[in-house]
């Protein structure tokens, strides 16, 4: 059986890293990188750190302008799909690269969607539109949690197509824990455990609007003075390109980090502040409080787990949320919304066992 994985961004490369290796050993596996994230610090570093083999294809799509980017993804992935004739296309998540599902569906190739069923019900998010579209074009849907499975069923997707497989990030962190422990980033940056905030922010609804971006930056400045802790902000090139304002004193913007250095910083931070999807999941793994600076989330499980507060962007709300999240009462027994760390095995088993039966559905 020929399985083609199509991906293009940092979180896809990280989350798929263990699954790639399972696919390589059990299937004829064609890896297609759209290069949606093309800077070395968002792409190449993860191939070398996580020992991911070279993709079979690099599509080098044009990025920046929406229509051009999508058109390029569709045209270039269609070409490879027609050439390679895979039995299955594997897509993870909600990025524009996942829209390779459109030509795959058009040509009758079965689509398997990992991270299916997440819904923020926030129509401002480009990712929300992609999620709905990819889910409804897919033959097999692999949500991380039962919550996401229920979203799919509410949208009339037949339960026989859905398997809950847990969150692949757990397996990745477990596998690389010795490397994470070896990272010397704390010494390099002269940071002590619990002495700093770790920040990421790059969602388009937050950083594309100069007013909201400026609110985020001013919130970070305020927390530096209020809590007297360093604020470490590995800044995504997307955000950097939108920044007009001078970075205030106390906010330390650095280049994006490799996975081992970044997760080492997560593990030792006082509190994580983010608009990322993956960081609330990693915070639960490390049992670190996490504040999501957004108004909506597609991951309510992390709020229910007690590890994540959805603060919005107002600086005073951010301060109050940090106080609450880092107070001792907040130290709850956090549950296992993350699955059991065996996602790659489950994905391979499902692909192997399901493909022929799908003929009769
Ligand atoms: N990450 C990293 N270096 C950084 C920032 C993040 O390796 O400087 C990792 C982080 O540990 C997580 C992933 O990148 O696994 C999150 O990616 P991102 O926030 O870009 O995507 P999202 O989760 O929002 O889709």
Automatic annotation (TrEMBL):
- Enzyme Commission code(s) on record: 5.1.3.14
Q: Which Pfam families match?
A: Epimerase_2
**Domain UDP-N-acetylglucosamine 2-epimerase, chain residue ranges per copy:** 24-351
What's the domain of life for this entry? Archaea
Q: Which InterPro entries match?
A: UDP_GlcNAc_Epimerase_2_dom, WecB-like
Keywords attached to this Swiss-Prot or TrEMBL record, sorted alphabetically, are:
Isomerase
Q: Does the keyword Transcription apply?
A: no
One function term, GO molecular function aspect: UDP-N-acetylglucosamine 2-epimerase activity
Question: PANTHER family annotated for this entry?
Answer: UDP-N-ACETYLGLUCOSAMINE 2-EPIMERASE (PTHR43174:SF1)
> In its UniProt entry, what is this protein called?
UDP-N-acetylglucosamine 2-epimerase protein
What is the organism field in this record? Marine Group I thaumarchaeote SCGC AAA799-D11
């Amino acid at each position: 059986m020929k399985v083609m994985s199509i991906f293009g961004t940092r979180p896809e490369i990280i989350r798929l890293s263990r699954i790639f290796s399972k696919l390589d050993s059990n299937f004829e596996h064609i890896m297609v990188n759209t290069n949606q994230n093309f800077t070395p610090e968002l792409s190449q570093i993860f191939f070398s750190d996580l020992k991911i083999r070279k993709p079979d294809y690099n599509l080098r799509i044009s990025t920046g302008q929406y229509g051009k980017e999508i058109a390029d993804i569709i045209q270039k992935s269609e070409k490879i799909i027609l050439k390679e004739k895979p039995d299955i296309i594997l897509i993870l998540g909600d990025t524009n690269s996942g829209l390779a599902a459109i030509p795959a569906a058009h040509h009758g190739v079965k689509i398997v969607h990992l991270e299916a069923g997440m819904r923020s019900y926030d129509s401002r998010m480009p990712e929300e539109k992609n999620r709905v579209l990819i889910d409804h074009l897919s033959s097999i849907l692999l949500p991380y949690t039962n919550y996401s499975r229920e979203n799919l069923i509410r949208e009339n997707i037949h339960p026989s197509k859905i398997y809950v497989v847990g969150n692949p990030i757990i397996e990745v962190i477990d596998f690389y824990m010795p490397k994470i422990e070896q990272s010397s980033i704390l010494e390099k940056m002269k940071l002590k455990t619990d002495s700093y905030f770790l920040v990421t922010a790059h969602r388009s609804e937050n950083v594309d609007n100069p007013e909201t971006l400026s609110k985020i930056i001013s919130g970070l400045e305020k927390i530096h003075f209020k809590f007297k802790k360093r604020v470490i902000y590995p800044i995504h090139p997307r955000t950097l390109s939108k920044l007009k304002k001078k970075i205030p004193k106390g906010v330390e913007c650095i280049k994006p980090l490799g996975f081992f250095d970044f997760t080492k910083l997560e593990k030792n931070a006082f509190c994580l502040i983010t608009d990322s999807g993956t960081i609330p999941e990693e915070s639960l793994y490390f049992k670190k409080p996490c504040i999501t600076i957004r108004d909506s989330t597609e991951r309510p499980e992390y709020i229910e787990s007690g590890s994540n507060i959805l603060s919005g962007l107002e600086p005073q709300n951010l301060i109050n949320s940090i106080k609450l999240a880092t107070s001792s009462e907040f130290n709850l027994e956090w549950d296992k919304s993350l699955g059991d760390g065996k996602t790659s095995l489950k994905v391979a088993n499902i692909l192997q066992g399901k493909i022929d039966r799908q003929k009769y559905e």
